[in-house]
Design a protein that fits this description.
Layout: E1 4-5, E2 8-9, E3 12-18, H1 23-37, E4 42-45, E5 52-60, E6 63-71, E7 75-79, H2 81-87, E8 92-99, E9 102-106, E10 109-113, E11 117-122, E12 127-131, E13 135-142, H3 144-148, E14 162-163, H4 167-182, H5 188-206, H6 217-234, H7 242-249, H8 253-263, H9 267-284, H10 293-299, H11 305-316, H12 320-330
Antiparallel strand pairs: 1-2, 3-5, 4-7, 5-6, 6-13, 7-12, 8-11, 8-13, 9-10, 9-12, 11-14
Amino acid sequence: MRGQVGGRSHPIHDSVEGSEETAPGAQNAWKDYVARNIAQFSVRLKREPHFRVKARTRSYEGFMVTRLYTSLGSAELQRGPLEIDSDGEDRYGFWAPLCGNQQLVHCNRESLCAPGSITMVSLAEPLLQTKYGDNDTVYFYVPRQFVEARIIWRSDICSRTRRADDGPWRLVYETIAALQRSAAAMTDDQFIRASRNIGELAILALDGCGDAHSSEQPVRSANIARAKRIIRARMTNPDLTLTEIARECGLSLRYLHDLFRDDGRTLSEYLQGERLKLAHSMLKSGEVRNGSITDIAMLCGFSNPSHFSTAFKRAFGASPRSIVRGVQETA
C-alpha cells in the first residue's frame, strides 16, 4: 500500500510538471506519477509532440487528494487483474472532473465523467479510463475500510455518474476541489480531519443509493471483497473449484453463493468474467506473439480452448483471433 511504513501511514507530498519542450519526458513522468501515487495502470497514449502534465498530491493515513492536468494528448489507462494483483491497492475514489471528458468502463458499466459531475470507483475492481484531449480532474480517495464500514459494497454504487448541479453532490464536488487547493498548507492533523469529514459527506450523498445501514452489511461487504481478492489471486489455476474458494474464505459455499447473487452475478459468472478480462488484456497487449491463443487461455485458467473461445465472443462480441489481428494491424 502506498504511504505505508511498518504498517503505519506516512504523509505524501508529491508533484510533477512537464513542459512542451520535454513532451516525451512529461509523458513518462505522468505514467510514473500515477503508479507511484494512485495505483498501477497500463497506459496507452499518443506520442503528442507538445504533451504537458501538471500534478499535485497530498496523502495521509490512506486518504488522498490529487489533481492531474494533462494537455494536448489522449490516453487510455487500464487497471486489470495483473495490475490489481501487483499492488493490492483497494481504495475507493471520487472523481471530480474540472475540464475535459473521460469515458469509464467499470463494474460492467460504461459512464461518461464530465465537468460538474462525480463518479465513484473502486481500485480493487478492473477499470478502463479513456481521456480525450485536455483534461483536469481532482481525485479524492478514501480507505476501503472507511467506506465498507458505512455502506455495503454493491455494483450499483460504482461507475454511476452523479451530476453536481445541486444538493449534496454539489457540496461534495465543491468541497473536494477546495480540499485539493488547501491541502498543501494543512498540517497532517488538519488534513486527516478534513478528509474524514469530506468522506462522511460523500457517504451521506450516497445514502440515497439504497444502501441503508445494518449490523450485517459491513460483514457481508468485507466477505465478498475478500472472496473477490482470493478469486483474482487464484483464478489462473484451471483446477480451482468453488468449494476451494469458499474454504479459503472461511465461508460456507451456500453463503458465498448468496453473497454473489446479492452482488448481481453468480460466483461462477464472476470467476469466468475475471478470467476473460485477464485474457482480453493479454491479447490486446500483444502477449499472444509469444505463444498461441490456446496458451493464453490456459494461462488465464481455461482448460478447454473451445469453451474459452465461445465465452470470450459472448462477453466481448469478438473472437480472440480478431482481437489479435487488430493488435497486429495497429502495431
